[in-house]
Amino acid sequence: MIEPGSTYVVMGLLNTDSIAYAAGKMLTEMGGNVIYTVQSERMKRIFFDRSPDLTQEEKDAMRFEYCDVTVENEVRNLFAKTGPINGVLHSIGFANPKTCLGDSMYTSAYEDIKQAFHISCASLSTVSHFALEQMEKGGSIVTLSFESQLAFPYYNWMGVNKAALEALVRALAREYGREHVRVNAISAGPLATKAAKSIPHFAHLAKTWRQISPLPWDVVNDKAEVANAVVFMLGKYSKKITGQTIYVDGGANNMGGMLLPREKPLKSSPAKRAAKKKQEAQERLERMRALQKSQKQ
């Protein structure tokens, strides 16, 4: 899906459990060069360096840069160092869970609201502005959203920020289209990442998806499915797609109300069930032949 040797900046890496890592790993496996960004050296030391999922050799092979997206000079300096790039994944979002998430929308912590908006939404504009300078042949910018057309309990101000983020995607797509740079969002279903675990009652969201998604949704393993869509949107086969929010959520965004019992996803795919039935039939046949053979003896 991507040109071998092309370079991508994956912003917002926290640990190997993140969508950023899943997408970056896929880009690397396809022959791309990946530059990961982490907010600070301290964050990398706490959340990434201690991860047991990778060997030290694998960690050393990755390129890291530090960038706090709320500091414009850090964003400017980042892209001054990257050289020509083909795309950017903006996998960044934060809202103070004690004030911006939880039981009530109301909060008097206006500084927290502004901080959440700056990191989760406005930073995409800053990133796009400076990334553009390194996209001389055009490119792709992808950000991560979450179902912004519906109001979910506990998600509160982050839901507001995701709606703003998708509006910003459309505005940036209009502005940068003349530069052959496309801007899109991927709206994923709930995934059990480190960031998601800070959402109060995250288990409620996971349960909701089991009730409304017509396709089975796995909050742990479907990071890979979201990464597939990210890489597609970063790559050469999505050149005429811009200003869009692409849903990778098992179809939950299109459903009205909970699924009926007869509509709920089956535990295994038709192919797996067919293979199981075929195996069972073969085993029955072998038992019958063995029985007939023993009776003849």
Helices and strands in order:
Layout: E1 7-11, H1 19-29, E2 33-38, H2 41-48, H3 56-60, E3 63-66, H4 72-82, E4 87-90, H5 110-131, E5 139-145, H6 156-176, E6 181-188, H7 202-212, H8 223-234, E7 245-248, H9 270-296
Parallel strand pairs: 1-2, 1-4, 2-3, 4-5, 5-6, 6-7
Protein model, in words:
By secondary structure, the chain is α/β, with parallel strands linked by helices. The protein is built from nine helices and seven strands; from the N terminus they run βαβααβαβαβαβααβα. The chain has helices spanning 19-29, 41-48, 56-60, 72-82, 110-131, 156-176, 202-212, 223-234, 270-296; strands spanning 7-11, 33-38, 63-66, 87-90, 139-145, 181-188, 245-248. The protein has a seven-stranded parallel sheet with strand order 3-2-1-4-5-6-7, sandwiched between helices. Strand 4 (87-90), helix 5 and strand 5 form a beta-alpha-beta unit. Helix 1 crosses helix 8 (223-234), helix 4 (72-82) runs parallel beside helix 5 (110-131) and helix 5 (110-131) packs parallel to helix 6. The mean pLDDT is 93.
Q: What is the beta-strand fraction?
A: 5-15%
Shape: globular
- Counting DSSP H or I runs of 4 or more residues, the number of helices is 9
DSSP strand count: 7
Give the overall average pLDDT.
93
The secondary-structure element order is: EHEHHEHEHEHEHHEH
Biggest sheet: strand arrangement: 3-2-1-4-5-6-7
Low-confidence parts, pLDDT < 50 over ≥5 residues?
A: none
Class computed from helices, strands and strand pairing: alpha/beta
The value of Rg in angstroms is 23 Å
Helix percent band: 40-55%
Distance between the termini: 61 Å
